Amino acid sequence: MNDIFLQACQGKRTRPVPVWLMRQAGRYLPAYQKVRGQTDFLTLCKTPELAAKVTLQPVDILGVDAAILFSDILIPLEAMGVPLAFEEGRGPVLEPPVRCNKDVERLHPIDPVSDVPFVLETIRILKRELENKVPLIGFSGAPFTLASYLIEGGTTRSFVNIKRMMFEEPALFDRLMDLITQVTIAYLDAQIRAGVQAVQVFDTWGGILSRQDFRRYALPWAARIMDALKNTGVPRIYFVLDGGHLLDIAKEAGAEVLGVDWRTDLDTAAERTGGNLVLQGNLDPCCLFLPEISLQERVKSVLEKGARARAHVFNLGHGVMPEIPAEKARLLVELVHELSA
Ligand code: 1CP
After folding, report:
1. Rounded to an integer, what distance in angstroms lies between the CA atom of residue 86 and that of residue 298?
2. Domains defined for the chain, CATH in brackets
3. Structure pTM?
């Protein structure tokens, strides 16, 4: 079994450095587009044979050192009682949004076995088909990020509704965050029981907060999730997009691996977190538009800076974009392996 990803998560400096890519399954891959051409996104997430198929595509095509379950962070929110749709060009829509006491009252905890059986079945299929070739990563959104989708009703630029609830009705915000956290713990725990070998918690919008507000309105619930999963022995990765100013605080959540986006160099990140954490990242996804020779220089630089951390898992600083040529993503994986061998 290729377990360099798990070894690095546990703090071992491996040769080569393991690499996987956030959103490694997706529209930049012609093989994914072929499946998506016949199925809408939510149906794809809810059809275990298809979700497993697209999960495996980047493992075969790119040669990455880990697979990540194909699903979406918004799936458990639908199971909590908020209708979810993905509209072409508009992104996710969660309607009606959660804004007042009555809206929070309508939400309910989930039993993953009966409410999201397709996720657990996808994991079981993947465990069979991967035959331990590479480890399987499970994931969830972080409570602050999930709350932002619930309260805003979709993607936002201003975050005015979530911040309004934080500041006008902190007790209601806390109650909503408690419920989301309870759901997320049950959801990740079920994924681990079904067989995932690491989990990543995506805090895509945590980075919009100041240090003071991140500590009050995001960290406690992320920390509760990490703490609840501690005894599973499965490595926990916490990724806060645009979180360079928050790294030392994010560390307090207790995950063994911190994801870092491209805005903060990994040597700086290692310094800010005391040098004893495993770091994951952090090539700017747009560097995949560079010609090979320049891409090679960038990969070298990320590897050199990543060597300052306790251990390093190579990744992009955020997800692969649909415009990236699949061949460049494959080249990236090859370069990481060659240059860190
Ligand atoms: O058209 C399509 O095929 C749908 C595009 C797509 C895909 C491929 C969406 C819609 N989600 C996904 C899969 C997905 N989402 C994965 C799969 C595993 C992998 O990495 O290969 C993962 C881990 C996610 C996680 C996710 N979904 C996040 C966190 C990570 C990140 O990118 O910051 C977020 C914020 C979402 C919400 C989401 N899902 C999809 C869209 C368009 C959005 C909205 C993003 C936004 O609000 O700007």
Report:
1. 35
2. 4-340 (3.20.20.210)
3. 0.97
